[in-house]
Amino acid sequence: MRGAVLYGPRDLRFEVRDMPTIIKPTDAIVRNSATCVCGSDLWPYRGIQPVAQPTPMGHEYCGIVEDVGSAVTSVKPGQFVIGSFFASDNKCPNCHVGYQSSCQNRELVNTAQAPLLRVPLADGTLVATPNVPSDDMVPSLLTLSDVMGTGWFAAHAANVKPGNTVVVVGDGAVGLLGMLSASQMGAERIIAMSRHDSRQKLAREFGATDIVTERGDEGVDRIKELTNGVGADSVLECVGTQESMMQAIRATRKGGHVGYVGVPHGVELNGEELFFAHVHLHGGPAPVRHFLPELIDLVWKGKINPGKVFDLTLPLDQVAEGYRAMDERRAIKTLLRP
Ligand SMILES: [Zn+2]
Ligand SMILES: [Zn+2]
To answer: How far apart are the C-alpha atoms of 210 and 230, rounded to whole Å?
Structure first.
C-alpha cells in the first residue's frame, strides 16, 4: 500500500509502505474510511520539529475493522470504529480517572495517513458506532479522533458551564471546535480571538458571539473591555505559543479557568505572575478516548456537526497538496479519502 511519509521540511511523499499486520494479540487492523492532516503535523512539516529519518505520518482515523488479534473482544471485523491518537489499555489507574492519553501503557498511533492502520490495545482504544454510518457522517466522526475531542477537552478543562463567558484563543480547527464545544455546553457568550475572515465566519457558525482581532496585551485589553474589566470565566488556549498562553491567562477572571490544549512550543511561565493571576490551569494531551462515547452519541443524533471544519477534501494520494494548503493557510483542515 501507499501512505504519507515525511522526509524533511516541506518534503512529504506518498509512497510505498509496508502493509500493517497484527503484531500483538491485542492489535486491530482498521481500513480507514477517512483520515486527515492535523495542525500539529505542520510542526515537523515546517521543520520546527526536525525528523531524523523518513517518518510515516497521521494520527486521526476512523474506519472499518479489517482484522483483530486473538485477545481482542470488544470490536470485531466489519464494525465502524474511531480511536484516539494515543492507544490506551483503558484499565490502568490513569485511564480509570479519565486520562487515557496518560495511560501507563499508552502507544502513539502515528501512521494513519494510509489506507490501512494497525491500532495497538484495540479493546481499550477503539469505540464502535451503533452501525456503519452513512458517508456524509464520516467527516464529523473523524473529528472525534482528535480535533473535536481536543476542543471538547479544552472546554471541559476550562470548566465551561451554562451562562459562562468564554474566550477562545486560536482560530485553527481545534479552536473552532472549542467554540462548538463551549456552545454545546451552554456558554452564553463566546469570544473568538481571530484575525482571518474565513475562520470568523465558521466561528460564528459554531457559536461565537463576539470576535476580537487584536492579539497579545491589546487582545487582553479588548477582552477586559468586553467583560466590564473582569475577564472571562473560561478561556480555551488552542495555539501553544508564549503569546497565546499569556493571552489566555491574562484574559481569565480571578477564580476562572484556563483549558490549554495547544502543544507548547517554547512556553515558559513566570511563577510570580502565575501566583497573582489566581486562575485554574488545566490541560495537556486530550484524553479523547474518555469522551468518545458521549461525542459519538452527539454526532449520531445530529446534535453537532464538527465535520464542517474540513474545508478541503482530497483523495489520499494528494496528501502532499493537503499539507501545502494548510501550510499556506489556504485550508483550515484537509480531509483525505483513501
Ligand atoms: Zn491531530
Ligand atoms: Zn491505561
So the answer is: 16
The β-bridge relationship of strands 189-193 and 80-82 is: unpaired
pLDDT digits (tens, 9 = 90+) for 241-262: 999 999 999 999 999 999 999 9
One domain for residues 254 and 308: no
- What is the CA(156)–ligand 1 centre distance, in A? 18
Nearest ligand to the C-alpha atom of residue 101: 2
Residue range 166-195, pLDDT digits in tens: 999 999 999 999 999 999 999 999 999 998
CA of 292 to the centre of ligand 1 (A): 15
Residues 207, 303 contacting (CB under 8 angstroms)? no
Total domains in the chain come to: 2
Look up the CATH number of the domain holding residue 217: 3.40.50.720
Q: Has this prediction a pTM greater than 0.90?
A: yes
The DSSP bridge pattern shows strands 2-8 and 55-56 to be: antiparallel
Give the ligand with the smallest distance to the CA of 98: 2
Distance 272 CA to ligand 1 centre (A): 33
Cell digits of residue 129:
458506532
